């Protein structure tokens, strides 16, 4: 049965408390290193901070999921091993993993703690998901954002674990966990160093006419007129000039966020067990606004009422939202 | 859309160097007290700044006659009002309307959303700005209200009037 658990982002201890207070069923977070896919400067938790945060969450009946969802490069596995051991010692409720080596280590050394398969593993077929379940005891898969609701419904029938889907936030375009665009320009890897468009390589320039350009490692990603909304400086949402076009154009996708608030009942009906809100890099204000809006919506649906979700467009990238592939494969 | 400081200041006469200097002199004792108090009450926020504790930030509230120079070094904390024409070379500049900046400090507003809407402008060292944002976001409670409390009923009244004066 779908419980429609709300899985909420926590980039700092204060954001974690905000998410818990706003009604999160579970929060997900990471350490201050490359073991998680939001390895941003000044973000995330020290082991001491995680200890007190786990205590706070557990007092309110909220679970804590630790993201260890990057891929250890050869010779650096110790960092992931230590992170798993520390998380286990501090009493986290589940690990979110992508790499098979990390999954195998936790399954053998900490068999009592649940394993969730990160979206970074890009497991989108029943065959792939079953492989993780059978070999590492994975209890939940976070599905990549490329499937329609009928496809999710079908997968649910063919796998032995719970399904979690993203419902709000950043909307990456590439196969999750495989994107090398940042690596190409900056030398840092999204999937091994845990950061897409590292802030140290980003620069914003303000021009005389009020426009603003965003650059990554010296390459212009976009230039926003003074009356245009802006987006993140990620290559997949960049606007580029090419020889065959007169104007710059969004080659992959425009700045936009995922918002599935209108599809929640269908997702529940399809057997989705948990809903994930993206945004560990966002502020407490975002966490408070988005978590309370979805808390209210999920409670309304569970009680058989029409969900009346608050307007969240002001918090979306480029102030635009999409239902992406969940509604139709033709979204782009 | 972000307001241009030049347009605003020219319209109000706030660009005059003499007026800016006088405003700085009036604001400075308050700023010194505020920053020392915040640093004392929230020491853990410095860890999130990493090496950017010694970065010079210019915080530029577009409609005020002066900008703020912040160097968040716990050993030698600097928060001072500076006339724009005499502002130091900053590692990073954060520009927006005063109440927006105040609300960002207090996490009443989301920095990314303010950036998307172009109400907030960031230039210079982006990593420094991200670290400062994360450090401030991990502070519980309201820095604006703590500051207002320091000045008793008068402080609270000024903050309330300020909030009313700006449409949200
Ligand atoms: S460039 Fe886009 S698709 Fe690639 S990791 Fe970054 S956000 Fe994801």
UniProtKB/TrEMBL annotation, chain A:
List the keywords (alphabetical): Ubiquinone biosynthesis
Give the top-rank taxon of the lineage listed in the UniProt record for this protein. Answer: Bacteria
Annotated pathway, please?
A: Cofactor biosynthesis; ubiquinone biosynthesis
Keyword check for Plastid: no
One of the Pfam families matching this protein, by short name: Peptidase_U32
HAMAP family, alphabetized: UbiU (MF_02232)
The record's section on PANTHER family has: PEPTIDASE U32 FAMILY (PTHR30217), UBIQUINONE BIOSYNTHESIS PROTEIN UBIU (PTHR30217:SF3)
What family is this? Belongs to the peptidase U32 family. UbiU subfamily.
The protein depicted here goes by the name Ubiquinone biosynthesis protein UbiU
Q: What's the source species for this entry?
A: Ruegeria sp. PrR005
TrEMBL record, chain B:
InterPro entries found in the cross-reference section: SCP2_sterol-bd_dom (IPR003033), SCP2_sterol-bd_dom_sf (IPR036527)
Q: Which domain of life is it from?
A: Bacteria
Give start and end of each SCP2 domain: 55-137
| Identification of the protein by name | Sterol-binding protein
């Amino acid at each position: 049965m779908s419980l429609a658990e709300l899985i909420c982002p926590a980039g700092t201890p204060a954001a974690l408390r905000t998410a818990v207070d706003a009604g999160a069923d579970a929060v997900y977070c990471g350490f201050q290193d490359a073991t998680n896919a939001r390895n941003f400067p000044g973000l995330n938790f020290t082991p001491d901070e995680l200890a007190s945060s786990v205590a706070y969450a557990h007092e309110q009946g909220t679970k804590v999921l630790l993201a260890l969802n990057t891929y250890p490069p050869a010779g650096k596995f110790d960092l992931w091993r230590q992170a798993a051991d520390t998380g286990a010692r501090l009493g986290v409720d589940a690990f979110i993993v992508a790499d098979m080596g990390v999954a195998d280590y936790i399954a053998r050394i900490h068999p009592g703690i649940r394993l969730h398969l990160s979206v970074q593993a890009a497991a989108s077929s029943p065959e792939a998901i079953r492989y993780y379940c059978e070999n590492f005891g994975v209890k939940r898969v976070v599905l990549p954002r490329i499937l329609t609701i009928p496809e999710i419904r079908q997968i649910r029938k063919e796998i032995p674990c719970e399904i979690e889907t993203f419902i709000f936030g950043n909307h990456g375009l590439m196969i999750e966990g495989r994107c090398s665009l940042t690596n190409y320009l900056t030398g840092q890897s999204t999937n091994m160093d845990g950061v897409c468009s590292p802030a140290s390589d980003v620069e914003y320039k303000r021009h005389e006419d009020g426009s603003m350009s965003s650059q990554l490692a010296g390459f212009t990603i976009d230039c926003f007129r003074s009356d245009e909304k802006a987006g993140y400086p990620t290559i997949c949402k960049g606007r580029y000039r090419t020889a065959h076009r007169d104007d710059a154009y969004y080659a992959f996708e425009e700045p936009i966020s995922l918002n599935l608030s209108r599809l929640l009942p269908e997702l529940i009906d399809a057997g989705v067990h948990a809903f994930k809100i993206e945004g560990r890099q966002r502020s407490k204000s975002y966490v408070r606004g988005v978590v309370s809006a979805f808390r209210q919506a999920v409670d309304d649906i569970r009680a058989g009422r029409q969900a009346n979700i608050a307007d969240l467009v002001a918090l979306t990238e480029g102030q635009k939202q999409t239902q992406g592939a969940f509604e139709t494969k033709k979204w782009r | 859309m972000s307001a241009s400081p030049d347009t605003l200041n020219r319209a109000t006469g706030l660009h005059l160097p003499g007026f800016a200097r006088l405003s700085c002199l009036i604001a400075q004792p308050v700023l010194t007290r505020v920053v020392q108090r915040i640093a004392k009450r929230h020491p853990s926020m410095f860890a999130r700044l990493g090496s950017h504790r010694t970065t010079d930030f210019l915080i530029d509230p577009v409609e005020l006659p002066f900008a703020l120079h912040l160097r968040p070094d716990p050993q030698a904390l600097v928060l001072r009002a500076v006339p724009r024409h005499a502002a130091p070379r900053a590692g990073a500049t954060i520009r927006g309307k005063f109440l927006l900046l105040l609300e960002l400090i207090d996490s009443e507003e989301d920095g990314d959303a303010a950036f998307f809407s172009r109400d907030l402008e960031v230039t210079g060292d982006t990593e420094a700005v991200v670290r400062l944002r994360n450090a401030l976001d991990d502070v519980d409670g309201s820095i604006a209200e703590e500051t207002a409390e320091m000045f008793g009923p008068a402080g609270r009244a000024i903050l309330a009037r300020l909030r009313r004066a700006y449409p949200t």
